[in-house]
Give the backbone structure.
Amino acid sequence: MRKCVVHARPFVFDFEIAKTALLIVDMQRDFCAQGGFGEALGNDISPTKAIIPTVETILYAARAAGMFIVHTREGHRSDLADCPPAKKRRSPAIGEKGPMGRILIRGEYGHDIVDELTPLEGEPIIDKPGKGSFYKTDLELILQNRDIESLIVCGVTTHVCVHTTIREANDRGYECLMIEDGTAAFDFSDHEAAIRMINQQGGIFGWTTTSAELLKVLV
Ligand code: TIU
């Protein structure tokens, strides 16, 4: 059983490769490319686009180490039957036509994961209607079936879907390590605050570290 120890905040994070999953949250064109949901919400998507190479490096290292990989996508059915009216009211772009197809709708080009991070056969894709990756999905069942105890989390956005997912995972007893430069928010102060909220108070929600520290122990 291969054990790894990573320098992290607030203190070292140790994990067994066989009991750990790399969870890549919502690295979709809708959040990382022009004309998607992120821009429709009034954001500059350059910070979310900029982390693609870092997440790619982590993904390839995790695959090489034999780690279980899970990808998520936020989105809805084409008839929006699974989109709470309150969400649609506050984000009216959902379901509307954009340059990459209907925004945040499953099956549309913009909803899919960016080319660089295309999932391989055997890497589950969790389609989720909410911010959290556990909410109304089979993620917990999939992790339980693989005896996963720890999650290494990358993706976007740090303070929204990544944070909600880590909070959900923490309540379910998973040990979570968030990769600081493998996540991004549209606004850097949101990103920084979200990192601090994870590792403060003795690691109230988990640990945070950099991709460089993670790669030291994975490769
Ligand atoms: N994936 C995710 O974070 N969904 C969002 O809506 N994020 C925003 O920052 N808006």
Remarks:
- Strands lie at 3-6, 13-16, 20-25, 68-74, 97-98, 101-102, 125-128, 150-156, 175-184, 207-209.
- The mean pLDDT is 98.
- Residues 26, 31, 41, 74, 131, 156-157, 160-161 surround tricarbonodiimidic diamide (CB under 6 Å).
